[in-house]
Each structure stands twice: as structure tokens, then as C-alpha cells.
Amino acid sequence: MVVRDEVRKMKSVAPLVAAMSNEARCKALEKVAEKLIEKQDAIFAENKKDLEAAAENGVADAVVKRLKFNEDKLRDVVAGIKQLITLEDPIGKVTLDREMDEGLRLTRITCPIGVIGVIFEARPDALVQISSLCIRSGNCPVLKGGKETTFTNRILFGIIYDAVLEAGFPEGCMLQVEQHNEIDELLTCDGLVDLLIPRGSNAFVRYIMDNTHIPVMGHADGVCHIYVDKDADIEKAIPIIIDAKTQYTAACNAVETLLIQRDEELIGRLMPRLTAALAENGIKLRGTKEVTDVVDRVVGENSGESTEGKNLEYESISEDEFKEYLALIVSAKFVDNVDEAIEHINLHGSHHTDAIITENDETAARFMQLVDSAGVYQNCSTRFADGFRYGFGAEVGISTSKIHARGPVGLEGLVTYKYKIVGHGQIVGDYASGKSEFHFKDL
Amino acid sequence: MVVRDEVRKMKSVAPLVAAMSNEARCKALEKVAEKLIEKQDAIFAENKKDLEAAAENGVADAVVKRLKFNEDKLRDVVAGIKQLITLEDPIGKVTLDREMDEGLRLTRITCPIGVIGVIFEARPDALVQISSLCIRSGNCPVLKGGKETTFTNRILFGIIYDAVLEAGFPEGCMLQVEQHNEIDELLTCDGLVDLLIPRGSNAFVRYIMDNTHIPVMGHADGVCHIYVDKDADIEKAIPIIIDAKTQYTAACNAVETLLIQRDEELIGRLMPRLTAALAENGIKLRGTKEVTDVVDRVVGENSGESTEGKNLEYESISEDEFKEYLALIVSAKFVDNVDEAIEHINLHGSHHTDAIITENDETAARFMQLVDSAGVYQNCSTRFADGFRYGFGAEVGISTSKIHARGPVGLEGLVTYKYKIVGHGQIVGDYASGKSEFHFKDL
User: Fold this and answer.
1) How far apart are alpha carbons B227 and B257 in whole angstroms?
2) Distance from the A73 Cα atom to the nearest Cα atom in chain B, whole angstroms
């Protein structure tokens, strides 16, 4: 299969898919859900082949967990599809309706983006979610999943594609590519592919961004911060930090850097509890010298009376070495106040998701106004940055760009708009000469 | 001046500009308008230097016309500023307000994009318009205008920058770069510049797109089409075609290609009138052999009785030679029906603006649904594609991308959003384990 030829075909049917009615798109999704349930045994059998191959190749347990597609996962994706069906149609919304002059009417109407390439990790449920979002929003997806799920992806794609064809979608409206080298071919399809959404490692996303002229939506890094303010409630701070680091350590919205206000009272309250909690959860601390000096003292003080924090693994590093760990390691430094925290985050963060822990709403408001990130939180875990948790049904990815979509991207990020004007022979010359005049009136 | 250092400083003040109130931004614009009027004599004196240099360098008349900044232009830009002040604030709009669970509230709020680099042609009024749009929307602009307006740009920038500082904006919130080689330095400022808007020739825009990792908004080509359907009213078709080609021939929204339905009755009605009108307006026709054969016949028939169309300059070319002329030349071919017109436009157009001439509203609706362009018009000139004519006050450019803004880009295209969550210590672990559950409720 030559990817470019297939994509060219897709480009020519994309306007037809964009013109499918809301009913037709919802009916297609119902068919997809039906067929997935109907063919579950066949799906599980194919998934078993992927799991066996993973076992043979010594794939890590964490990855194997994601590869698995069982009754639970099937139930989840079907529930996701049903939720998508209930959401308001994102297509065909009139967002501007303006009379420019008598008999000259301008409307702006939402429409699908067109052909969207999504390159995603080895998770069969992701294939179903991304396909469903595209079907709901009238877009044509080119799907490339992780190679560890080849068998499962193949049968899932076949089922979904058959279902949408049965529902009246045109042939060529969905495409699966399986070979890694086909990604490079896809990257050259500017003019045919309207948007690329790569998910995966930093290096991979960066590679995509650097090697295509197609617009790319996504994020490379996820260096998320938690700033603990002097007015923080420690009972909230500790569980939030532990959750943000451990609930899913490899996620882009996991916390990587702690900023703590340089306030004696706060440090006295926080550090013994924090060192104990980090130690208890096996999290290694990499702090500036100032931080590790405090930890030395805290651990020393504790050693006589309690073992809390005693087992903490920690080391002193320079601020330049702070980075995205995606592991049970967290950086830490002290800052004078919320403004220094904001400055640090805007300069060193990745504009993904950053939180402040404080009971002072004024300080929080300042933080949330001035931190230039897709998500700015007060008193909750950075791990909430997720399309499902935002109530979007599902997400195709999280964007740290400020262009187009930002943050978790659901249906709304898969939509653009076009301007329509209906006239009766009007020409611009008449408006330039003053013979006619605009009389803008929103309808 | 090292551009990167200045841009880094701008990046750090951008959140402060983003936090300026609506009142402060409007007041700054009022000050700009006041000062422009106050200092008009000095502005005109500087403009005279640019005009003299242009005369010395033999700059083309059309360009000189654009360089000129006189009372009329001043009145227009001041009127534009006043209009901008009256428009609804694009910043701080709550576009989502959702309770995720008790005491966990998600809001989505519009905010400025941040640092925007705009590279524009030698038009002093463009500098004022772009600056005003950025001030109104809380963005920090890096401005690079055409070198032919160096003196005028310098004084205009100084006046505007002084005015916003007086209004309380932070130092470094606006920047002018004057040297062409500084553009290349600007292109390397990814991570600091959030968006680039290049305006100018195809080759220039393409160069920008190919040489930066900063997101670029704009358009390279503007190959606009007019499709004349068999149900067209010729009384509308002819003036629209002539206006779309001649009203501003060098504009991106000028028509370049005519598609005419292969219908004997239509061809009989249209072609004698069209050839006459093209000839009368000095427009050269480059048609397929089929089209020029008809022209041969029409001109021959006319020759005996009338001179209409006799002076038409025309030649036969292959369809592959159709292109963007930005001159008094138009391509033409016959198509079987609206579907072939749509296919041609989607394949060969630049997704800018395309029009259908027809009295059949069903045919028009099909065309406007399936043509994949930023603007799709029925019975009016493609020249209407413009921010001012859409009632946006002004535009920073026209986008043919389907990502972010599409079509003429006014205030709305200079805005992004951020998600805020205010919680009370919630962690994701509790929702994953089932201890807590989301209860989405839009407020």
C-alpha cells in the first residue's frame, strides 16, 4: 500500500464525510458499538496473540497491562461511544450570522477539519476512542497504533470500518497504516493531511514536529509543577503531591517539580511530613542544596525518635538539572513567593498543567492568571488534566500549543469553521466607490 | 539589538499584559488615537522621507500609493481604533463552567495568545491596525514592516508604544524590528514567540513556514475560483467576474480561475458577453482548447456585426498551467456540473475563497457544503473575503489553515484559552479507585 495514494483518495471523500448528517454519524457509532460486542470473542482471540508475542519479547508489565483488551476494556470503550452519541453535535453550528448589507448575508458554520493522522501508543482502546471521536465529528482518520498491538488493532479497525461503511459512509473514509516507515510517508502528505496528532515519547513527538509541514497538535514535554504556598493546608498538600507523582507516574500530567515558599513556618510544617511521605512512596527527591540541607536536618532530627523520612533517597542537584522524569523522582526548590514561582514555571515549565496549594484565594487567583499553561489548578492534583475527567467523553490528546486547541482535546478540537456568503450579485467595487455601504446587523 | 534578548523580555511581561483589564486596554487605545492625531504633522513629515526615497528608487506607483500616509489614512486608522474599542472584550470570557464533583470546579477562560510576530508589507496603516488588534486582545506584538516605510513605521511605533506605556502597560510589551536579517533571528525564537503571522508574497510566506518551528498563521497561495452554473443569472455573473478580477488584482482574494458549466444554452448566453467584458477590462483569457475554440467562434461571429470581444487577448493552455496570476489574466475551463467544479476546486484551489454563480439554491448549497475553503460564496464577488468587510474592525491576515483561525482573522483569532480547576484537596487516586465519582454538571 502506498500511503499517499490512499490519503489522496481519503482527501477526496472527506467533504462527503463532512456532509454526513448528525443522525448518520450517530447511527454509525451505534453500529460500531453493536459490532464490537458481537465480535468480542474474535477480538479477545486476536488480543491473545499480541499478549503472547509480548510475553515472548519480554515486554514490560506496565506495557502489557495497556495491551490487554478484555471485557472491562470493551465495556469502557462501548460506554465511551454511547457517551459520545449523547453529546451535542459539534458540526453545523452557526457561530456568526450577520447581514453585511441588504441581501448580503455572512454566516460562519462549524465543520470537520478533514483528514487527521493520529499516531498513538500500543493501546487498543485508544484506537476505538480516536476512531469514535473522528466519526462523531465527521473527520477521516489515518490511524497508526503501536506495533505491540498489531493483531488487536487490525481486527478492531476492520470491525469499525465495516460498521461505518454499513452506515453509509464512503469507502476510504478511514485508513490504518501498520508499518513504522509509513509514518515517514505520512509526514510528507502536506496538502492532503490537515492535522497530525502524535502521542508518545518526547523524542517521538519532537521528531514528528521537526519533520513535517503538516500542522501538529500535541505536546512534547510535560514538566508539571506544584507550588506550595505559605498559606497551604498541609493536609491537602501531601496527598496531592503523592497522587500527582504516583497515580500514573509515566503520564504527561504527573508532577515533576515542587516549588515551596521560602517561609520558615511553612518549611517547619511541611518538610517532615513531605520527606516521610516521599520515603513511604518510594519517591526520590532531587533538590537544590538549600532543600537538601533542610532534608538533612529533618532526617537527622527524626532519626532519634522516629523512622519517618529516614529512608528517603535524596540528592542535591542544580536547578538546571530539573527535568521531566516520568519516574518516581521529583525535583524541588524554594522560592520567595508566588511571583517567583510563576516566573520559574513560565520559564522552565512546558505550559501543560501547574497547581498551587494555598488557602489564600487571592494568591491562587494571581497564580492562575499569570501562569501561562493549558491547565492552572488550585488545591487539586495535576493528574486531573484529562479529557475524560473534564467530561469530554474522550480525548485525542493533550495540546500545549496556544494555537487551535489547548489542554485535553475532545470533539471541539476536531472542528474548524467556514464562512459562507449568500449575495444577489454584489460586487466590492460598489462598496469601495461609496455607491453601496455596509450595514452590519447580527441576526 | 539582539532580537532574542528583547523577545525573552517580552515573553516575561506577556502574562502581565494578558492580565490588563478591559478598561486599561481600551484606555490605551484611546491614548493611541489621541496621540496619532496630535502628532500628525510629524508623522506626515516622516512619511514624506519614505515617499522621497521611493521616488529616488523608482518604486512602482501601486506600491507608492500604499506607502502614503495622509489625512485620509490617518482618519481611517483612527476610525478603526474607535471601532475596536466598541467591540466586545475577547478576553476573560468563560466558555465552559462545569462542576466535576462537589467542590471541584472546572472553567475554561479565553486569554491572549502571548507573543505574536507579524511581518507585513510596506503599509503604515497596517502597522497601526495590527498594533491596535494586539493591544485590544492583550497580546505583545513583534512588528516588522516593509523597508520602504522605515521612517513612517519608526515614528508610528514610537507614538503607539509611548501611548501604551503611559496607559500603564509594562515596558517591553511591544517591539519593532527593522532589519530584514532580524527576521531570521525571530524565526529561531520558538518557545518565546507563540505565533507568527507573515503577510506578503507566496515565496516569502512559504519561506517563513519552511524555516521555523513557531506556529505560522496565514496563507501562501490565493487561487480563488468562480464557478458559473447553468442556472446562473448572467447579469450577476459578468459584473462579479470583472469585480473579482479587477477591483484589486494583486489581492489574494482576486479570482484566478473560471469554471463554466459545459451547457450549450449557458455557453451561448455567457461567452459573447464574457469575452466582450474581459476585452473591455483588458483581461487576458488563458483557457483550455475547448474554451478557446468557443472564443474563436464567438469572436468570429461578432467580427461581422460588432467589435465586442474582438480585442480579447486569449490563448489556449493546458489545465496544468492554471495558476495564481495576481495580474489581469484569468484561466478558464468547462466542467460537466457542480460536482466536477467542486472536485477541481478542492484539488487545485488553495482553500481560500470560491464562489458559485447560480439562481438554483440547491446547487449552491451543495457547492458551499462540499467546497473545502475558508470562504464559499453564492452570487457575490470573492473580493468580499476581508476582515473589514466581514465587520471584524480590522484583520491581522487571512488564514487558509483549518487549524486555529480560518478566513479573515480579527480579534477572535488572537485569543486562546486556559482551563482552571479550583479544588479542595481532591486527588485522582480516589476517582480511579471508585472512592469518589465524577458528577458533571454544567453551571
Assistant:
1) 9
2) 14
Task: Compute the nearest-CA separation of A443 from chain B (Å).
Answer: 13
The residue in chain B having the minimum alpha-carbon distance to the alpha carbon of residue A345 is B12
**Residue numbers in B near A106 (CB within 8 A):** 390-391
- With H, G, I as helix, E, B as strand and everything else as coil, classify residue A170: coil
**Are B374 and B243 within 8 A, CB to CB?**
no
CB contact under 8 Å between B375 and A420, yes or no, is yes
Contact: A391, B98; criterion CB under 8 Å: yes
Burial code (b: 16+ CB inside 10 Å, e: under 16) for B87-116 equals bebbbeeeebebbbbeebbbbbbbbbbbbb
Contact (CB, 8 A) for A33 and A81: yes
Which residue in the set A108, A240, A425 is minimally distant from B240, CB to CB?
Answer: A425
The Cβ-side half-sphere exposure at A145, using a 13 Å CA radius, reads: 25
* Cα separation, B288 vs A385, whole angstroms: 56
d(Cα A309, Cα A306) in Å, to the nearest integer?
A: 8
> Per residue of chain B (443 residues), what is the pLDDT tens digit?
689 999 999 999 999 999 999 999 999 999 999 999 999 999 999 999 999 999 999 888 877 888 999 998 899 899 889 989 999 999 999 999 999 999 999 999 999 999 999 999 888 999 999 999 999 999 999 999 988 999 999 999 999 999 999 999 999 999 999 888 889 999 999 989 999 999 877 788 888 988 888 988 887 778 999 999 999 999 999 999 999 999 988 888 999 999 999 999 999 999 999 999 999 999 999 999 999 999 999 888 755 555 567 789 999 999 999 999 989 999 999 999 999 999 999 999 999 999 999 999 999 999 999 999 999 999 999 999 988 888 887 788 888 888 888 888 888 889 999 999 999 999 999 998 889 999 999 98
CB-based contact A372 B14, cutoff 8 Å: yes
Nearest-neighbour CA in chain A from B204: distance (Å): 16
Give SS3 for A117: strand
Q: What single string gives the DSSP state of each residue in A49-87?
A: HHHHHHHHTT--HHHHHHH---HHHHHHHHHHHHHHHHS
Residue in chain A closest to B422 (alpha carbons) equals: A378
**What cell does A180 get?**
513504522
What residues in A contact B233, CB-CB < 8 Å?
Answer: 425
Grid cell listed for B136? 485590544
- What are the angstrom distances between the C-alpha of B385 and each of A106, A420, B148, B399? 10, 10, 27, 11
Interchain pair A106, B390: CB under 8 A = yes
Contact A14 B374 (CB under 8 A): no
Task: State the Cα–Cα distance between residues A377 and A370, nearest whole angstrom.
Answer: 12
Query: Do A417 and B401 lie within an 8 Å CB cutoff?
Result: no
- Give every strand in the sheet of A284-287, ordered side by side: A314-316, A284-287, A329-335, A255-261, A224-228, A353-357, A375-380, B415-426, B104-112, B94-101, B441-442
C-alpha cell of residue A244: 500527582
Distance CA B345, CA B224 (A): 8
Of A15, A210, A377, the CB nearest to B370: A15
CB contacts, 8 Å: B427 with chain A: 239-240, 242-244, 247, 380-381, 383
Contact residues, chain A, for B440 at CB < 8 Å: 391
Chain A residues lying within 8 Å of B432, measured CB to CB:
247
What 3-state class would DSSP assign to B335? strand
State the residue for C-alpha cell 467546497: B371
Angle, in degrees to the nearest 10, between helices A289-305 and A264-280: 70
The alpha-carbon gap from A126 to the nearest alpha carbon of chain B, in Å, equals 18
Q: Are B265 and B251 in contact (CB under 8 A)?
A: no
Torsion of CA A150, A156, A161, A167, to 10 degrees: 180
What ipTM was reported for this prediction? 0.89
